[in-house]
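Quick note —
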Amino acid sequence: MSERTKSNRRPRDVLLERLAWGGLAAEREVTVDVRGDIAHVGGSVTSVERKRLVHRIVSEMEGVRHVVNTLRVAPVAILDDDSVREYLLAALAGNPAIDETTIYVEVVSCVVQLRGVAATESARCRVEDESWAAPGVRRVINAIQVGSAVPPGGAALASEIAQAIQDRLGSKAARIGVEVRADIVQLTGFVPNEQVRAAAERLAWTPLVADVNNELIAVADGGVPTGRAPAEGNVNVV
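Predicted structure written out below.
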């Protein structure tokens, strides 16, 4: 029995509800017509990934055995990284299946990087779906772990943050020190410019951190800072 017959709801109403649940509420140019066990999907979406997501959502509708997907892809203008991140954070907060407080989002050159924890694999996948649904996204790197959001020990948290900073900033992070006091992170040392200083702070913000004290000092390459920088790769735990 098809979902349309069973629930007396139009297939388009069911589809729009599921699109909203999957983070695609803005894609209202999608049409669907169910004939027997075949669903014909038309209209337009803003990316190939959204076309795939719509296809998957329709294929999971009760009674549908085959999907004829003729959706057109009409890309939107690419947004800057901050706008993409703000859009995605709002989308995560508006999805009842996601606990956005345990998810960390970073956007670099319209590539979304996801870290943190999700209660279930389904929730992890929904975060990725929301990420692909954000306008302008070119790629999604999903490093979200499935399990409990119980905070790790201070040493593990400091090491994780220091490693994330090193991975992203490379040699520019050579003189950055990471100190953890309970759930508060303190960054000390020297960086070559304000952009690196800001990037290090963003990387220190994880779902398990209550606050970040950024005491990094920006010194132009070749400059001589006052005071003494922490040793390379320094991680302190209190």
